[in-house]
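Schema walkthrough. Field components (list of strings):
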Amino acid sequence: MALYVQKYGGTSVGSVDRIDAVAEKIKRFKEQGHDIVVVVSAMSGETNRLIGLAKEIQPGAQSPREMDVLVSTGEQVTIALLCMALEKRCVPARSYTGGQVKIVTDSSHTKARIQDIEVSSMQQDLAEGRVIVVAGFQGVDPDGNITTLGRGGSDTTGVALAAALKADECQIYTDVDGVYTTDPRVVEGAQRLDVITFEEMLEMASLGSKVLQIRAVEFAGKYKVPLRVLHSFQEGPGTLITIEDDSAVEKPIISGIAFNRDEAKLTVMGVPDVPGVASKILGPVSRANIEVDVIVQNVAADNTTDFTFTVHRNDYEATEQVLNQVATELGAREVVGDNKIAKVSIVGVGMRSHAGVASKMFDALADENINIQMISTSEIKVSVVIAEKYLELAVRALHSAFDLDANDSVSE
Amino acid sequence: MALYVQKYGGTSVGSVDRIDAVAEKIKRFKEQGHDIVVVVSAMSGETNRLIGLAKEIQPGAQSPREMDVLVSTGEQVTIALLCMALEKRCVPARSYTGGQVKIVTDSSHTKARIQDIEVSSMQQDLAEGRVIVVAGFQGVDPDGNITTLGRGGSDTTGVALAAALKADECQIYTDVDGVYTTDPRVVEGAQRLDVITFEEMLEMASLGSKVLQIRAVEFAGKYKVPLRVLHSFQEGPGTLITIEDDSAVEKPIISGIAFNRDEAKLTVMGVPDVPGVASKILGPVSRANIEVDVIVQNVAADNTTDFTFTVHRNDYEATEQVLNQVATELGAREVVGDNKIAKVSIVGVGMRSHAGVASKMFDALADENINIQMISTSEIKVSVVIAEKYLELAVRALHSAFDLDANDSVSE
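Field assembly_structure (string):
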């Protein structure tokens, strides 16, 4: 007898047949005596279809308020259809748009943030035995304007509802059966994790494990909502994302290997080593709306320094132009860049209490003759930038070095 | 400097190009200094697509509440796209769903009736120079559930908004350029009417001139909202539907010839002529959800009577079954029917003050050797039922007899 908030993404409700399958699944949960609140996305393809219409009508910048009015219809269609599929199975259900809940957000159209959720109406429906089906990704601002939370916002809706309703678990149904130690397409022995902490998941997500939206994980961590990633149409326990359990002394040092090949590296060489140089370089980059990831500044030699950072690969040329201008103004020697790089990271809360994790990583890479171009560390993560061509080799070497391979865990 | 409520139907907003054309048209009205409130339908085909999805998910009876949640998305898409098209033209605009206005209805899902409209927010937008774009066909009940007004309800939304905002005119843009004396496909000389009264329009509409929804005309008549039918993409004055102007002494006796070939006729022969027979016959028909149109009971002879009425042709077989049962119970002689009939009506407020209109009609039909099977009259209408094969002949003969032909009006 638990209260579950279940989120089904666009692929899981992408056709009439799939909506029927989801309804069947929900029916079984109800039969087990659970209370169910469902959050759904638009049927796959629908949001893009609507955005396409908008771009045809208003090329360039679309009116943000009207974009939200437009795209929010996608989820509204799904909630109605899913309720019909439930009622066909004699499962009482009621649909709610974001505004009907109501999920109050700020007025930042197309990227609104949730401020408050009214739960009384939903609680009454739950008490009367109804399944509640809520349109993900949308809300209303205090003036009643329709808002959306931005791409992937349905995960956030699910977590926010689970927090507001004090649900036992927020279950994110998707097209993978959990979070893996690394990408199974790169490492054959990659294993599904039973449990991962919010912090680890954040590092994994931001590094390219696109299972969950970062905002949803942050939200879940903040409100301590247990979050579970499961496959929509396969049985299995999935991966539970939860707060750190201090009692788990046997927890592996490293939970997973994340990687990202979407980055490019730029270096301003021979920058005068005076205070304020970093902001003089990154200020113009930021003003050009370019996001910076890893930043490394080498120790100064002969009163100059080399300043290196990575950006998204799509921003490589734009960043180069900005830097050439900056380099001239600063009297720097030159700007060099490389867009054939990859970032590989080891992630795990266990490394806090274990010295030598970083050196073990560097050793494993050295054993494969992989040169490390940049290093960046945080409390639960060590990232290195290497040449892109070594990416798969590096991931496999690290996966094995940290005993994450399926074979290893069986043999030990 | 007038306030116009303009309604554009599904065909008028059926594509991105057409939405652009509508926006261009609205821009011109704004440039002339008018205040504009626009009501739009779903893009043509969209409502049927959504209903198709619902029927796939839930064959048989769909949940009415969820149907309204589903189909109301159609208009919501259009309001957003039209606002974008207006903003692209630097015409400030704001979209409103039925719930945002808010248009409060009763809770009869899929066929709700409007109870109240809040105007303060719209009035403020108008004062600030914005075009208001409202989703037609939809509202919310007092509990915030989404409702729809039923097919064609966008006309009703337009009229209701015009009444609430005290607009100078409610303009219904459609794919015809006005109301005609009769169907131009049947009578070449059919003429567009400049003016028609609400009562005449009601009789014309209910008889098959599908230019306007009956409910909208009733609503406009009740609140004395001047209603104008115009072509969406052709210039022209259209037809003004208004209250009767007593000063127009030269008004023609007959405004138009309406007809309908969707009916079938059934007669219960030899019914005992005792009180209560009519309800004994029509009660079971009504309980079978069959709507009855013209009813005629012949004068009794030898203590029995013949009872005749018309139904929609689709209900012919069902009605026949009901009547066979009833005839047995009543001891009637037999049930005979004919589904190859048509109804032709002359309509005009002028006939109130002119004797001989009916006989002129009967003469004109007799001249063409057309036998009249049933006659039914109201204050401003005379209807006859004839064999379907004579329909076109009858309409042309009457159009000419009542001087409605374009040539006649020029020569006189």
